[in-house]
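Objective 1b: paired records.
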Amino acid sequence: MKSMVMSVIVEVLVTCLLVVVAGFLGYVGASWFGVGSAMTGMLLMFALILLRHATCLWQLIYWSQAPHEREPLTATGAWGELSDLLYQQMRKASKETKLANTELERLRLAAEALPEGVVILDDDWVIEWMNWEAEACLGLSASTDTGSRLTHLLREPALLDYLNAKGTHEKPLSLTTQRNPGRTLQVKTVPFAAERTLIMVRDITQLEKLATMRRDFVANVSHELKTPLTVTLGFIETAADALHDASSEELASYLRMATEQALRMQSLIEDLLMLSSLETDALPQEEAMDIGSLLTQVKQEAQALSDARASQHQISLQVNGSTHIVGSARELQSALSNLATNAVRYTPTGGVISLRWEADAHSAHFSVADTGIGIAAEHLPRLTERFYRVDHGRSRDMGGTGLGLAIVKHVLERHQAQLEIKSELGKGSTFSVAFPARRVVAE
């Protein structure tokens, strides 16, 4: 700054000196060449001085219009000092702007990576910025919707009331929008800069489904256990009351029915424990096993259930290709047996049930095909849900717990296998399991 002041002082002194020199030369010239010539010389000297300052000023203005693309002014004196000072300030401002842009880009990328949607609104609810997650949750597009009012894009009365109650609510808003039907969003405002509102958006659709499934699970378990327990206690009380009056055949009938209900409760508890183990335990120790012998056991269990029901099913087993795979024998036994016994339960007397295993170098497949009652197409996506029943009354009469296919689903997931279900009402069903090639042991 001191250098700049000194340069200005020197520039003024030099200009004054030139004026004095011009005046002296004009005085001398007037006596030699006449007054007209002297005045012409003085005016020329003043014109040169003004031309120099005007040229420096024009060059400085020209450079300032595009300082990053043009060379700065090179001059002596105050103009040179002013040019150097402006150039240094420009470089400093450029460096600070670059650093600010870098930090802003980092913040933008960090906001884009957030698992929650972020929307910044001005005081009129106009969208200033949003990240990708907010676009996906709200069904908006940053490229086309930035600059528009959020309440015009999402015409949801609950959202408008929530935003207008800014600062007066503590709980987030659960919202379902017309732009994304079927998805439940959680919206919450967060304190932000003056005249700005920051909105956090989360997709809680899956959490809502899990909460609903948890409530249904507790209700179903309570109901499934309560029913056989009530029946068992009723039979026991009836048998106790009729102990002296009832015949031995009647007492045996009561005890038999109580035993059936107790076994039903035992089966349900075993399936619940199995399902809990599959969901919470670490992956089991796996080993190469002979799937042929395991499937023979599965067929025997299905045949035993059929014989116990006097159903006279025609149950066959066919094994082709490699019979050794890597996995947990206990878990696969449970899953494949559930598929086979389900076919027995839902196939009328005299029906045909075919168990088939095929393996090659690319994959292995197990299928259970039956000529049973079949399943309507709208029920197929939900068959592996816990306690999901196509026909509640008929399913209980068949003796199932409602957890068999849920167990199958979890076992297959732990073995990277896929379940496919094909069915047609009145014609039967086919449940197919595809194992990945890496689980097949080449023979």
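Objective 1b, second protein:
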Amino acid sequence: MGIFAALFSGVSGLQTYGDALGILADNITNVNTVGYKESRARFTTLVTESSSSSSFSPGGVGLVSQTLIGKQGLLQASTSATDLSIDGAGFFVVRNSPQAQDSSGEILFSRAGSFTPDAEGFLQNTAGHFLMGWPVDSQGQIPSNLGSLDSLVPINTAGLTGTAEATDLVKLRANLQSSQSVSALEATYVPTVSATNMASGTVKPDFERTVQVFDGQGGAHTLTLAMLKSDVNNEWHVEVFADPAADVTPIAPLIDGQVGTGLLRFNPDGSLDLTAGTGTSASLLSGFPINWTTGAASSDISIDWGSDSDVDGITQFDSISALISSNVNGAIFGNVTGVAVGKDGAVTALFDNGLTREVFKLPLATFQNPNGLNRRQGNAYGVSDLSGNFSMVEAGTGGGGSVAPGQLEASTVDLAGEFTQLITTQRAFSASTKVITTADEMLDELTRIKR
């Protein structure tokens, strides 16, 4: 009888709209949850089998929940360098485990990027999920097996050690006075003899300046660049030596702490002449191998004197000899002061000596159907048959979005829309109760017919 079927329809309405209320309540209470993706209640009819097209058998209503995981939330600025979001497709790869070193923890995927260091320096979000990334080796390379979860490690910002950088390039801008008189000692000048060279102090240079360089251990050393005008026009003798000389072991035939000697030659217009064979000595252009006596690894330092036939480096004009500027790379040993994350997902360590070094790279996991992922505790998701398998890509490649450092992805919940749905769901629930009470009254009328 249709009255009984109406009762069942009303009951299905109560259950369905009650479930819909739960979805709306979850959305509303997570309106401020970072990276939360709203769920929607989708209603569908329930149809019982009918033996005739002219008759109708009510079945009621059913509910299918749909979480809009692929929907992008608004990116909001944050003051923390480790607050991260994704501008575009993709998910952070996280591990759900009580400790970062627990490799048995489940790998999940999340866009909740409010990461902070734990007591051991591992980055975890508010749900306790640890951020995973590719380690970067000393050559700046990441593992070749990018698609394997075995290539990932928990990202730690406290376990980074200090670093130093050896000097390998010195850039100079200077002028040597063209009218400089030739020293009487130039006639007997021999750079590889202590009694007649500038490194020993026997011959006074016409121009002398020092620069500070660094070895591979971060040790600072002083190199002196000494120049003596030659009796040949437009030509200057050059010696580069350590001060003190005991800092280096000279390579024969060099002596007295020398690391390089040679000739600088200039064109008649005052520009540098680097022409092979006739200009600057090749030894001054090939770099200076230096054996430090401090135990640090050997260095190979090149000096950029300037461009051939140009005035962007060392020049020879008739004004007082002077060093205009010098630029030396390398740095002393420094400790980690923080980390920075780039749009490409590169996690870079910042050192107090001004150096930076890439230490990790964040992968982004992409899915053919992100809306098919399974919801997990802590605003994370797991792989399902509907989502398909994941692909791990570098940020900005392979369909993945870019990492937005210093920003958090807001919840996708529209509070005004949720309250509107709340009202309509309440009205639909009340209408379902009215169906049940009406059917009950009709059944009561039927039972009173026999009286």
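The chain has a mean pLDDT of 90. The CA atoms of residues 174 and 323 lie 4 Å apart.
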